[in-house]
Amino acid sequence: MKILFFYISILFCVIAAKAQQTKSFKVIDSVQKNGLANLQDSLLFANAHYKIGEGYRYSVLADSAYYHYHKAEQIYRKLKKKFKIAITLYGIAVIQKDEKDFTGSEVTSVEAIALLNQLEKTNEVDKYKSFLFNNLGLVFDQLELYDESIAYHKNALALKRTLKGNTKATIDNSKNNLALSYKNSGQFQLALDFYGQILKNKNLVNERPDFYALVLDNYAHTLYLSKKKDELPGLYLKALRICDSLDNSAASYNSIVINQHLAEYYNDKNQKDSAKYYAYRAKDISEQYHNDDLLKSLLLLSKIEEGNAAAKYLKDYIALSDSLQKAERTIRNKFARIKYETNQIEQENIRIARERLWLLIISIILIITSFLIYSVVTQRNKNKELKFIQQQQETNEEIYNLMLSQQDNIEEARTLEKKRVSQELHDGVLGRLFGTRLSLDSLNMGTSAEAINTRSQYISELKTIEEDIRKVSHELNTDFVAGSGFMDIIKTLIETQTKAYGFDYELNNNEIDWEEASNKTKIHIYRIIQESLQNIYKHAKATLVKISFEVKNNVFCLTINDNGTGFDVNKAKKGIGLKNINSRVEEIKGDLTIKSELNKGTTIKIKVKTD
Amino acid sequence: MIEHIKILMIDDHPMIIEGYQNTLLFTKKDNQELSIDIANNCDEALAFMNKSIEKSVPYNVLFVDISLPPSSDGTMQSGEDLAEYARKILPNAKIIVLTMFNESFRIHNIIKTIDPEGFLIKSDLTSSELASAFQAVLNNPPFYSGTVNRHIRKTITSNIVIDDKNRKILHLLSQGVRTKNLASHLDISISAIEKRKKQLRELFSVHDGQDETLIENARKEGFV
């Protein structure tokens, strides 16, 4: 009977809902298109789904409504909007009840009530609570659990009475529903009382004529069931008259029941013609709707008609019943499928979310790893550089030590030479000079011819001694260590390197006073030559290297020339060998020029101020 | 009466020996008859000495040069060793040391170890001095060169007394040997050498701690 109430509202809602629906769809579209999923947007999204669900519910498109309600419910659950969940569940419960999924509807309603109970009491909360109680009442009525049904309807009624605003219509609805439960449970007097309460309102026939007709019919039927047939069929006919006078689908739908009741009444009275008339009328109208009412009409007809016609209607009844049952099952399956599909989508979402999480974790790990690798690599490079510097220092030290030891060697050689000269003077010259002197001294006294002869012998001996002294003097004069020291080291370096690398060399060493050059300069020059030779060996494939030292206008000039393959000076700037030479030249504040011609050789020139 | 004098001259320079011979032959007294053997190295000298003992005609006078190349068997390192040996086997021979060395240390050492009858520094020597030295050694030893006399006088008059090791340290330092190498020359530890050097610096009142000053002061005092 509740269905009836909804159909009344549908008329008003469908048009409005249509407009709203398109708007809501737009919202969903835009939300989906933009792929936004933050809290605000998903709320919008859910609201849109809810509105569409509502729209479909009023349009009696149960499965679509259910789908959108379910979507809205899931989003609300995520957002933990309890009230919204509850009202969505209410929508779902109503659909379930309409589609005769009574247990489902019961469960959904109870859950919605539980949610509402957790909220603060407001008018809106109470309103939906009363609606849910009403729904439960209807469900239990259908399940023929009249005690529960009555209890829930009473609850609903009590709650509705506390509500603010115009609650007359909804209270009347509840009363009607309560009375229906009483009627179905056989408590006709109580039912009559409530119907009476509704009908007492004289304005009702003008305000809600279809509802008035419905209640009137119910009232009359209760009378019929309680065997108080005095006012019958007058009340029935009055209700039917009101329905017929109204030209809308709700009224014509209501008239089915009234016609059925009339047919039932006349059948009882054995006025077959009237009974048949109303039964056929009920059937005709209900055929438009193809539902339970048609079923009832067919059953009624099978009772009223006789023989073959009765059998035919019974058969039709069974066929329709089967098809309705099938439809119910299908719709229930559909619900289950929608729930399953959305669950699947949910699971898919969860899976995607998990994948995203993994992706995030993996990328974080990757980033961290790459950062670590990067830092390790840079650290290693730094270490390498440090090592390189250390090595350079070591080699510098080596050269320094080499020079020091060379100095020592020179010192030693000097001492040795000194000793040798002194020895030579002492043993070779002095002794002979002494002997000659002594002899001449002794001969000095003699005047004999023999003495004169011997004397001249000694004098010529003096000459030999003179010669010897000159020799020693000459040896002393030629500085046996001249140009040694640093130049010796360089010479040794060039000799050993060129020998090892297998090329010839020419060393043009103009007398250069190395004593004035600082050790730093010497070390760097040594290293530059070493590095250059290495480069020549590695890259140039030369056969001859010319190295020359010059000093011009207080500028020292080192030139290293090879006859190798040469290279592109601009491109090779970054080679480590050249870099080394560069840094060394900078270190001694020198000037480096490199000239190179392909297949003709390379010339490196380094100029350093001597001061 | 003819005085027969047997002489062994040891010097690695034939020219010097010739000089000695010339001088002696020219300046000998008429009653003296000289028989001179010449040895140019330690080995020859040893052979002559041993032979003279065998024949029981030992040498009366030995002219010994200090700086001689070592003997082939290595027992004789210089004229000094040779002279010492001669002292043992020819106790009656008069030894005249002739040397180019005029450093106090060497002079000191030679006097101490050999105590020669004649000690002549070649640079001082003239033929007349050699002649008089020869005669003096034969009749009235000892005869020392002026340099030797000066050295002896200096050491006697000096208040400073130092032992042989310190003397050697001074000598080696004056030769330009470094302190770190002194140990190997002297067979004592470096710390011991440092200790001795400290002593020496105090003895020769060296205040700046320089080796050069030490040597200079020591030379003044006749120890180098």
Low-confidence stretches of chain A: 1-17
- The N- to C-terminal Cα distance of chain B equals 47 Å
What oligomeric assembly is this protein in?
heterodimer
Mean pLDDT across all amino acids of chain A: 81
Ranges of chain B where pLDDT stays below 50 over 5 or more residues in a row are: none
**Mass-distribution shape of chain A:** rod-shaped
**First-last Cα distance of chain A:** 119 Å
Strand percentage of chain A: 5-15%
Structural class of chain A: alpha+beta
Instruction: Name the helix and strand elements of chain B from N-terminus to C-terminus, one letter apiece.
Output: EHEHEHEHEHEHHHHH
Helix and strand pattern of chain A = HHHHHHHHHHHHHHHHHHEHEEHEE
SS field, number of helical segments of chain B: 10
Round the Cα radius of gyration of chain B to an integer and report it. Answer: 20 Å
CATH architecture of the domain at 202-339 in chain A: Alpha Horseshoe
Rg over C-alpha atoms of chain A, rounded to the nearest angstrom: 62 Å
The strand order across the widest sheet of chain A is: 1-2-3-5-4
Q: How much is the average pLDDT of chain B?
A: 87
Give the strand content of chain B.
Answer: 5-15%
Protein name (chain B): Response regulator
InterPro entries (chain B): CheY-like_superfamily (IPR011006), EvgA-like (IPR051015), Sig_transdc_resp-reg_receiver (IPR001789)
Keywords (chain B): Phosphoprotein
Domain Response regulatory (chain B): 6-137
Keywords summarizing the entry:
heterodimer; A: 611 residues; alpha+beta; Serine Threonine Protein Phosphatase 5, Tetratricopeptide repeat; Heat Shock Protein 90; five-stranded mixed beta sheet; 20 helices; 77% helix; 6% strand; rod-shaped; B: 224 residues; alpha/beta; six-stranded parallel beta sheet; 6 strands; 52% helix; CheY-like_superfamily (chain B); EvgA-like (chain B); Sig_transdc_resp-reg_receiver (chain B); Response regulator (chain B); phosphoprotein (chain B)
